[in-house]
Specification:
By secondary structure, this protein is mainly alpha-helical. It has a single domain (3-85), classed as DsrC protein, C-terminal domain (Arc Repressor Mutant, subunit A), CATH 1.10.10. It is 59% helix and 0% strand. The radius of gyration is 12 Å and the shape is globular. The protein starts with 7 loop residues before the first helix and ends in a 10-residue tail after the last helix.
Protein backbone atom coordinates (compact mmCIF):
# COMPACT_ATOMS: atom_id res chain seq x y z
CA UNK A 1 0.00 0.00 0.00
CA UNK A 2 1.18 3.51 -0.82
CA UNK A 3 1.10 5.25 2.56
CA UNK A 4 0.44 8.60 0.90
CA UNK A 5 -2.95 7.24 -0.22
CA UNK A 6 -4.08 6.81 3.40
CA UNK A 7 -6.92 8.89 4.79
CA UNK A 8 -8.94 8.85 8.01
CA UNK A 9 -11.91 7.58 5.99
CA UNK A 10 -9.81 4.67 4.70
CA UNK A 11 -8.69 3.96 8.27
CA UNK A 12 -12.33 3.64 9.35
CA UNK A 13 -13.00 1.17 6.52
CA UNK A 14 -9.93 -0.90 7.36
CA UNK A 15 -10.89 -0.86 11.05
CA UNK A 16 -14.41 -2.03 10.22
CA UNK A 17 -12.94 -4.95 8.26
CA UNK A 18 -10.97 -5.77 11.44
CA UNK A 19 -14.14 -5.52 13.60
CA UNK A 20 -12.90 -2.36 15.30
CA UNK A 21 -14.96 0.78 15.80
CA UNK A 22 -12.57 3.69 15.86
CA UNK A 23 -12.79 5.87 18.96
CA UNK A 24 -10.53 8.48 20.56
CA UNK A 25 -7.98 6.04 21.99
CA UNK A 26 -7.74 4.21 18.65
CA UNK A 27 -7.06 7.46 16.83
CA UNK A 28 -4.37 8.41 19.35
CA UNK A 29 -2.48 5.21 18.56
CA UNK A 30 -3.02 5.43 14.80
CA UNK A 31 -1.91 9.07 14.68
CA UNK A 32 1.04 8.29 16.93
CA UNK A 33 2.11 5.49 14.59
CA UNK A 34 1.88 7.72 11.54
CA UNK A 35 4.00 10.39 13.24
CA UNK A 36 6.49 7.77 14.42
CA UNK A 37 6.77 6.35 10.90
CA UNK A 38 7.22 9.81 9.41
CA UNK A 39 10.08 10.52 11.82
CA UNK A 40 11.88 7.15 11.84
CA UNK A 41 10.72 5.57 8.54
CA UNK A 42 9.97 2.30 10.32
CA UNK A 43 6.91 0.86 12.01
CA UNK A 44 7.73 0.02 15.64
CA UNK A 45 7.51 -3.50 17.00
CA UNK A 46 5.29 -4.09 20.03
CA UNK A 47 7.89 -3.49 22.74
CA UNK A 48 9.11 -0.27 21.11
CA UNK A 49 5.52 0.84 20.44
CA UNK A 50 4.52 0.32 24.06
CA UNK A 51 7.53 2.21 25.38
CA UNK A 52 7.16 5.09 22.89
CA UNK A 53 3.44 5.52 23.55
CA UNK A 54 4.13 5.45 27.29
CA UNK A 55 6.61 8.31 26.91
CA UNK A 56 4.32 10.30 24.63
CA UNK A 57 0.80 9.61 25.94
CA UNK A 58 1.47 8.41 29.47
CA UNK A 59 1.86 5.07 31.23
CA UNK A 60 -1.88 4.39 31.35
CA UNK A 61 -1.90 4.26 27.53
CA UNK A 62 1.60 2.90 27.04
CA UNK A 63 0.99 -0.60 28.28
CA UNK A 64 0.25 -3.79 26.39
CA UNK A 65 -3.03 -4.46 28.23
CA UNK A 66 -4.51 -1.16 27.04
CA UNK A 67 -3.17 -1.59 23.50
CA UNK A 68 -4.49 -5.15 23.18
CA UNK A 69 -7.89 -3.94 24.36
CA UNK A 70 -7.89 -1.50 21.43
CA UNK A 71 -6.30 -3.81 18.85
CA UNK A 72 -6.95 -7.41 19.92
CA UNK A 73 -5.27 -9.05 16.92
CA UNK A 74 -1.95 -7.49 17.93
CA UNK A 75 -1.44 -3.78 18.49
CA UNK A 76 1.67 -3.37 16.37
CA UNK A 77 0.38 -5.22 13.30
CA UNK A 78 -3.32 -4.34 13.47
CA UNK A 79 -2.81 -0.68 14.36
CA UNK A 80 -0.18 -0.32 11.61
CA UNK A 81 -2.59 -1.82 9.12
CA UNK A 82 -5.29 0.68 10.08
CA UNK A 83 -2.70 3.48 9.97
CA UNK A 84 -1.81 2.49 6.41
CA UNK A 85 1.72 1.51 7.37
CA UNK A 86 3.76 -1.60 6.62
CA UNK A 87 4.01 -4.35 9.21
CA UNK A 88 6.76 -3.82 11.77
CA UNK A 89 9.92 -5.56 10.53
CA UNK A 90 9.91 -7.99 13.44
CA UNK A 91 6.38 -9.11 12.47
CA UNK A 92 7.00 -10.15 8.85
Amino acid sequence: MDISQWSPELAVLIAQSENITMAGDHWEVVNFLRQYYEEYRIAPAMRVLTRAIGKSLGPDKGNSKHLYRLFPQGPAVQACKIAGLPKPTSCT
